[in-house]
Amino acid sequence: MMNHGPDISAPNPARPGRDQGLMFGLIALVGLGLWSLGTATGWAEIGAQLARLQPWQVAILLALSAGNYLLRGLRWHGLARRLGLPTGLWQNLRHYLGGFAMSVTPGRLGELVRMRWLRRETGWTLERTAPLALMDRAGDLAVMALLLALALTLAADRIAGAVPVAALALAAAVTATRPRLLSALVTRLYRALGRFPRAFARARGAARRLTRFCHGPTLALALGLGFLGWLAEGYAFHLLLGFLGAEIALWKAVSIFVFATLAGGLTGAPGGLGGAEAAMVALLSLDGVPLEISVPATAVIRLTTLWFAIALGLAVFPIAERAAARATA
């Protein structure tokens, strides 16, 4: 469908230098932190642990991550259809996976570029498609909070501070998916600021459209697919620790992985860079895992989850761009 009018959902190119500087700065800090830990621990010991990993073991880790992204892509498709978007399965998977190319960019540009592709291909405005992105992110928060709560219940010992993090994630998910509550929150925020009336009006309109998702089977499908997807990555972390010689029970490994991921997200850094890695190494160390295992385990799981997603996104991104360009030609 032709796109008439300005593309308001496209990322703002006004600050590319600052955004890229922030992104590369965060990556450099994470690399420096892991390098410092590696130097303090001893690169020979870390290298010996990494040498234990076999190609088939790495393939299993990548397959579990791919399963996570596929399940969440199917969730995106189901939510898009529920919203009424005239898009097919491959089209929705293309948008969802392609958005991962911008996972570590400031301002969650991955969501914006997905909205941009939808606008070009369907003519739907940002206000109409925003509930899809909001429900997708809220779904991740909800299932991760539930998964963390389950892991804490089944694990032999708990992680200090994990319960408040799980509660905060669940509260944010509930707020983001309740139309009246979110609309009231937007209204209060506008009254407090007294600025940007058009932006807040659009936000209220998007919040009201969340009623499309207040549907039992839709919510059950979204939560179920998201839960299985994140559990797959938590299980991958458990397998990885076993491959490296650390005896960590399944649910303890899942709780560490989910808690670190949530903690990284709460820092506000793109992709949870820095916070997730620091939390993971710290929690493993508290559980008695030596640094020569916890440091490479953290690096490998982040490479096979976050950076693998970015690699998938970079592969799909040009395909999605070409398809969107053909739709507006």
Automatic annotation (TrEMBL):
Domain of life, source organism: Bacteria
Membrane spanning residue stretches: 21-44, 56-74, 138-156, 162-190, 210-231, 237-260, 272-293, 299-320
Magnesium as UniProt keyword: no
Topology with respect to the bilayer: Multi-pass membrane protein
Alphabetized InterPro entries for the sequence: L-PG_synthase/AglD (IPR022791)
A family per Pfam: LPG_synthase_TM
Protein name: Flippase-like domain-containing protein
Subcellular location per the Swiss-Prot or TrEMBL entry: Cell membrane
PANTHER family registered for this protein in UniProt: UPF0104 MEMBRANE PROTEIN MJ1595
Gene Ontology cellular component terms for the protein in this record: plasma membrane
Alphabetic keyword roster: Cell membrane, Membrane, Transmembrane, Transmembrane helix
